[in-house]
Write a structure and sequence with these properties.
Layout lengths: L1 E5 L7 H10 L4 E7 L18 E3 L6 E5 L3 H11 L5 E8 L11 H11 L4 E6 L8 H15 L7 E5 L7 E3 L11 E5 L5 E5 L12 H6 L3 E5 L7 H11 L4
Parallel strand pairs: 1-2, 1-5, 2-4, 5-6, 6-7, 8-11
Antiparallel strand pairs: 3-4, 7-11, 9-10
Helix pairs in contact: 1-4, 2-3
Bound molecules: manganese (II) ion.
């Protein structure tokens, strides 16, 4: 099995090395990752300038750093290494639960794989004072890969690992809304600036990714690329007809 490992924290993140080390037990690994951190840029792609990559071997792994986004890295990786059987994206410094899936560069790496007809698994862990303890997480990551990789129905999975996993749970995406305000402040020169903030405005729903993580379970959410609201579509078609 050919495994392409990507992330959004940049190629020198310890999270990508930990993931590559676990992935190495499951197949042939290559790392293709952004040259600098590209967190929270979602599924951005670079279309107004060319991309380039440089070979950057890391502790025995064949690795390439790309001057682009996580989605770019997967596209470039698939071009220089034909297609991989699966893309593993992470391990991200910081969880990617619920609403943050819309902003996540980590998840975008996995989504790009699914868009290109491969499979993608995104993995994230909370940042603690000392960062995620990757050595402690490694057996749990191996457990996740053992579960997901043999199942062809699972094309795109978002995984979050608490720092002390008590088990693994299948979950759905939390859709808890947030206020998303930009809070004004002043820089040291007295100039106005703004911070984007995320404060949830709803409770955590049972069975969701956030709910599992609150209970110290590894959360695994199968996702799909189809954003269509099938229920709303059927309902509106029933009311107005398919042709207006
Ligand atoms: Mn990140």
């Amino acid at each position: 099995m050919r495994i392409l490992v990507v992330n959004d924290d940049g190629i020198y993140s310890p999270g990508i090395l930990a993931l590559a080390q676990v992935a190495n037990e499951f197949g042939e690994v290559r790392i293709v990752a952004p040259d600098v951190e590209r967190s929270s840029m979602g599924h951005a792609v670079t279309h107004s300038r060319p991309l380039s990559y440089r070979r950057t071997p890391i502790l025995g792994f064949e690795a390439f750093r790309v001057d682009g986004t996580p989605a770019d890295c997967v596209a470039v990786g698939f071009s220089i290494w034909e297609k991989a059987d699966v893309v593993l994206s992470g391990i991200n410094f910081g969880v990617n639960l619920g609403n943050s899936m819309w902003h996540s560069g980590t998840l975008a790496g996995a989504k790009q794989a699914a868009l290109m007809g491969s499979r993608g698994i995104a993995l994230s862990a909370p940042t603690t004072r000392d960062g995620p303890d990757f050595e402690r997480l490694k057996p749990h990551i191996a457990h996740v890969l053992k579960t997901v990789l043999p199942d062809p129905e699972l094309n795109l999975v978002n995984v979050n690992l608490p720092d002390d996993p008590q088990g693994v749970m299948w979950t759905r995406q939390s859709v808890r809304h947030y206020d998303g305000k930009v809070v004004p402040s002043k820089d040291p020169m007295g100039r106005q600036h703004y911070w984007f903030t995320v404060f949830p405005v709803e409770e955590t729903e049972e069975g969701t990714d956030r709910w599992a993580m609150d209970r110290h379970y590894v959360s695994m959410t199968p996702l799909r690329l189809d954003l269509t609201d099938h229920q709303a579509l059927a309902s509106v078609q029933a009311r107005t007809g398919k042709l207006l």
